[in-house]
Design a protein that fits this description.
The complex is a heterotrimer. Chain A is α+β, with helices and mostly antiparallel strands. Chain A has helices at residues 9-32, 88-92, and strands at residues 38-43, 46-52, 60-63, 69-73, 76-81, 101-104, 109-114, 123-125. Chain A folds into two domains: 1-32; 38-114, N-utilization substance G protein NusG, insert domain (mini-chromosome maintenance (MCM) complex, domain 2), CATH 2.60.320. In chain A, 23% of the residues lie in helices and 33% in strands. Chain A has a four-stranded antiparallel beta sheet. A three-stranded antiparallel beta sheet of chain A has the order 3-4-5. In chain A, β6 (101-104) and β7 (109-114) form a beta hairpin. By secondary structure, chain B is of the alpha+beta class. Chain B folds into three domains: 44-91 and 193-224, no CATH class; 109-192, T-fold (Orthogonal Bundle), CATH 1.10.3980; 240-367, T-fold (Roll). Helices cover 35% and strands 25% of the residues of chain B. In chain B, a hairpin with a 2-residue loop joins β6 (219-224) and β7. Chain C is mainly α. Chain C has a single domain (3-29, 37-171), classed as Arp2/3 complex 21 kDa subunit ARPC3 (Orthogonal Bundle). The longest helix of chain C is centred in the last third of the chain and has 29 residues, at 137-165. The chains are: A alpha+beta, B alpha+beta, C mainly alpha.
Chain lengths: 126, 367, 172
């Protein structure tokens, strides 16, 4: 028991690799992630709603069947209301960039911001 | 507890390296999974910008050219729309000419306006002259009464509607093209709500067209609240643009048909756009001035392809009010094409456009 | 006192500590830059003590106790996530303590914290049926590394004292 060090060389490697990988990934995301086009909402893995973030300006509220309420505003989307005990989804805040994601695990609800991949058109007239 | 013998130091190091590699591979895999979804569309834009003006979303995508140039062009195109709004069109900001015009003491008429505003007023008035009184430049009294301009909707009383309807006419609106002067009757209010987005497209498209001509980019797409301008081509070889027409019964980014177009201006007017429900009845935002109420029609949306953004925007509202039959003449006059969508999900299009329209949602059929 | 009784008593004590630490942690304010729901995991200290001094069964017992506490206070989903994170991290911790001689306490703390996060995240992904929650992973890794290092240091600092303090009991 006593032989084990406070901190060893191997610890340094583990820490270094972890921090490098995670920080690298976060930095890469920060520089390359594009503003999202759509937000896809899934409940139990099924897509139940798709919100166009490109045209989302004034606050628009979407209430899902499980009582979770989302607000799309200013090209972002966030959880606005949920009956989950810890409210982690509410604390996640507004999602904006492609790949951003927020989850309300107790309600099995995930919001993910996606790019334009679902379209085979250049633009939509509405 | 086991102690590792000195001889196995190397083996241990190798094992650690393998572990690190495995971890690295896992993270790479995760990374590629997360970014795999950022590709798509016919081509990847070299620049993108979005903004909000005229109460709607502006989005500009450009193709080809260097990333930096593309990005600054997109911003410039958005700024052009923003400037048009604050300087000329805004209904609420006192910085705008239209606001000042509508708040001018009628005793001071006629007043001179910029040629930019004058042209927009004149062209809107000319197009709505084909409406048989259903649409007018001077329709502000009714649109404000219904709260259409501020999104504070309400159903007015019949007395209010009758009073406002008397003010919604264009024969009292005098536009003098020689002196760029405007006058209209007291209580009247000019409204460019149905053409402003199209005009915004014109301005943004102008920025992009200059850049295409200069060879900075190969093309671009502008959307001002769903009114579209396409400029150049995605790859510089004259490839067409594919434009989706919004599914009137779907969510905001679902489309039921695609249009293959070259350089063009498109606008859609649909009853789904702004709606509100009061006492169980749903009202849409396209008012018929002859009744003072939202237009009663079998149409749910009309999409126009025209020569300018303003024309496409004004014509889409006009043709929605007129219906397919009565729209033919004015469409021909402006050399415009149209796609009509009916409440029963049947679709029709002007003859020359028919081949360019592809229905991609099975629920929709040709009429 | 018999060794067995002693072990049970100490396990209970550590379990109580773990629950108390979990509770204290929940009182901490959350910072905006932290991944949502991230907790420093101080209660992992109790796990680490148990794993290094008492062996597998008490260590897993504490993980289960913590999960039960989470289930009671924050709902079944949080409980399940805590259970899987706790079991996974405890298993890895035990394995490392037994088989590995190169890592220090910081390394073990870091790895077990990261494993805890990983286990929770995998359960979350399975529950919601959507892999995109894994996007949290990098942020959680960073945070877990920092929190785990701290836990490891504290553990190393306190362990010898606790070891000595309990030496008389263990001999009997």
């Amino acid at each position: 028991m006593k032989e084990r060090k406070w901190i060893s060389k191997a610890d340094g490697i583990v820490l270094g690799v972890l921090v490098l990988l995670a920080a690298g990934f976060l930095l890469w995301r920060a520089f390359t992630a594009q503003p999202g086009m759509n937000a896809v909402v899934t409940v139990d893995g099924e897509a139940v709603l798709q919100i166009d973030l490109q045209s989302a300006e004034g606050a628009q509220s979407y209430t899902l069947e499980n009582g979770v309420r989302l607000i799309a505003e200013n090209h972002t989307v966030r959880f606005a209301e949920s009956d989950c005990p810890d409210g982690i989804c509410l604390k996640t805040g507004a999602l904006q960039k492609t790949g951003d994601s927020a989850a309300c695990v107790p309600n099995r609800t995930v919001v993910t911001v996606t790019g334009d991949e679902s379209r085979d058109v250049d633009v939509i007239a509405y | 507890m086991l102690y590792i013998k000195a001889g196995s130091e190397r083996a241990k190091r190798v094992r650690l390296t393998v572990k690190i590699r495995a971890l690295g591979a896992a993270v790479l895999l995760l990374g590629s999974f997360l970014c795999a979804c950022s590709r798509g569309g016919t081509q990847t834009p070299s620049g993108h910008a979005q903004d909000i003006a005229m109460g709607s979303a502006i989005s500009v995508n450009v193709y080809g050219g260097s990333r930096d140039a593309a990005q600054s062009l997109c911003t410039a195109a958005c700024d052009a729309v923003q400037a048009l709004d604050t300087r000329v069109l805004s209904k609420t900001a006192s910085s705008s000419e239209l606001y000042r015009l509508n708040h001018t003491d009628p005793a001071a008429f006629p007043v001179a306006v910029s040629s930019e505003l004058f042209d927009a007023l004149a062209e809107t008035k000319a197009i709505y002259a084909h409406s048989g009184g259903k649409a007018a430049l001077g329709c502000g009294a009714l649109t404000s009464l219904w709260g259409m301009d501020t999104d504070e909707f309400r159903v007015p009383t019949q007395e209010e509607i009758d009073a406002a309807r008397a003010l919604c006419r264009d024969d009292t609106v005098q536009l003098n093209a020689e002196q760029n002067t405007v006058s209209f009757a007291p209580g009247q209010e000019l409204n460019l709500g149905s053409t402003g987005k199209g005009l915004g497209c014109d301005r943004a498209a102008q920025v992009l067209r200059e850049a295409v001509n200069a060879g900075t980019i190969t093309g671009g797409v502008v959307s001002v609240g769903g009114s579209i301008a396409t400029v150049g081509s995605p790859d510089g070889t004259g490839t067409s643009w594919r434009v989706g027409i919004r599914d009137p019964y779907g969510t905001a980014n679902e489309y039921f048909a695609t249009l293959t177009v070259g350089e063009s201006y498109l606008s859609t007017s649909g009853s789904y756009e702004k709606q509100f429900t009061e006492n169980g009845k749903t009202y849409h935002h396209i008012l018929d001035l002859t009744t003072g109420y939202p237009a009663e029609t079998q149409l749910v949306s009309v999409t126009i392809i025209a020569q300018t953004g303003l024309q496409s925007d004004a014509l889409s509202t006009l043709c929605f009010l007129l219906g397919e039959e009565n729209s033919r003449e004015v469409l021909e006059l402006y050399n415009a094409q149209a796609v009509f969508v009916y409440a029963d999900r049947t679709v029709s299009a002007t003859a020359s456009l028919r081949d360019g329209v592809e229905l991609v949602n099975d629920a929709y059929t040709w009429r | 006192m018999k060794a067995k009784t002693y072990r049970i008593a100490l396990t209970g004590l550590l379990g109580a500590c773990a629950v108390a630490l979990s509770y204290l942690e929940s009182l901490l304010p959350t910072a905006a830059f932290l991944p949502p729901g991230a907790k420093p995991g101080f209660s992992n200290l109790a796990n680490m003590f148990a794993a290094s001094m008492l062996g597998p069964l008490p260590a897993f017992g504490i993980a289960v106790l913590k999960a039960g506490f989470a289930a009671l206070t924050r709902g079944g989903t949080a409980g399940l996530m805590s259970l899987c994170g706790g079991i996974f991290s405890t298993a890895v911790m035990l394995l490392l303590l037994k088989k590995d001689r190169r890592l220090g306490f910081v390394g073990i703390g870091v790895i077990s914290a990261v494993c805890h996060n990983l286990g929770q995240l995998c359960v979350a992904a399975a529950l919601v049926g959507n892999l995109s929650v894994l996007a949290y992973l990098p942020a959680l890794l960073l945070f877990g590394a920092a929190a785990g290092a701290l836990t490891g240091l504290v553990c190393r600092a306190v362990l010898p004292a606790l070891y000595r303090a309990t030496a008389s009991f263990r001999k009997k």
